[in-house]
Amino acid sequence: MRMTSLTAVLDACVLYPAPLRDLLLQLSLAGLYRARWTDEIHGEWMASLLARRPDLTHEQLDRTRTLMNASGLDCLVTGYAHLVDGLQLPDECDRHVLAAAIRCGAAVIVTCNQRDFPAAYLGQFGIEAQHPDAFIAELMDADQQRVLQSVRRVRLRLRNPPMSADEYLHILSRQSLPATVTALDRHRTSI
After folding, report:
1. What one-character DSSP code corresponds to residue 36?
2. CA spacing 20 to 30 A to 136: which of 11, 15, 56, 110?
3. Cα 41 vs. chain centroid, distance in angstroms?
């Protein structure tokens, strides 16, 4: 596996829903980038999911968190708290995400909320906020074959029920990934 030097902090909004999280994690496992997050980010996506899905338990989500933390080398960012108070973002609750990105030397924050991470401000730290659709598109431009292999791995893991390529693309289209779905649709037989 070839690992890139690209490091990205995954914001809570891309870790829930599960289909987007699974794809982003598989792309990282394939060595296309290095995924990073914090316990605070875990807390946010877990609280959001539990609020919308009362049928789930905290223990079930803890299992997911444990698996995520065990999935990659050094994915959990720590030691960033001292940076939070010195940062200025439109939503103060997002400062910990930027602090983590600064701490781990990330070039990208993958988020659906780019307006909460102004480009000019993040640029001072050499960091860019990217929507997951744009992020995945850049990964596909860099290494289309590994992205297609990753998508296929994620799709084939879905067994309850199993999904065809068309069904999986439909799931991805519901994740606000139009460019990704369009690009993958051209390679449907490979996924």
Report:
1. E
2. 56
3. 11
Report whether 108 contacts 129 (CB < 8 A): yes
Q: Where are the alpha helices (DSSP H) in the chain?
A: 18-29, 39-52, 58-71, 81-84, 95-104, 119-123, 132-142, 144-157, 165-173, 178-185
Joined tokens for residue 47: 């609280």
What's the CATH number of domain 7-134, 3.40.50.2020, 3.40.50.720, 3.40.50.1010, 3.40.50.2000? Answer: 3.40.50.1010
pLDDT tens digit string along 48-99?
999 999 999 999 999 999 999 998 668 999 999 999 999 999 999 999 999 9
Residue found by looking up tokens 């829903």 in the block: 17
